[in-house]
Amino acid sequence: MENKKTFATSQESSAYEEAERAVNLQTIKAYNAVYAGIVNSQTFKNIILDVFGGDFPERTRPTNSITEIHLDDLIKYLGISKGETLVDLGCGRGILGLRIAEKTGANLTGIGFSPASIQQAMQRINEFDLKGLVRFYTADITSTGLDDSSCDAVMCLDMLGMGANKIPALNEILRILKPSGRFVYTTWEKPDVPFEMESQLLEETGFKAETYYAIKDNDLFRLFNENIIDKRSVLIKEMGEQAVESILSVAEDSLNSLRNKEYILIGCKKNHQDNL
Question: Whole-structure pTM over 0.85, yes or no?
Answer without folding.
Answer: no
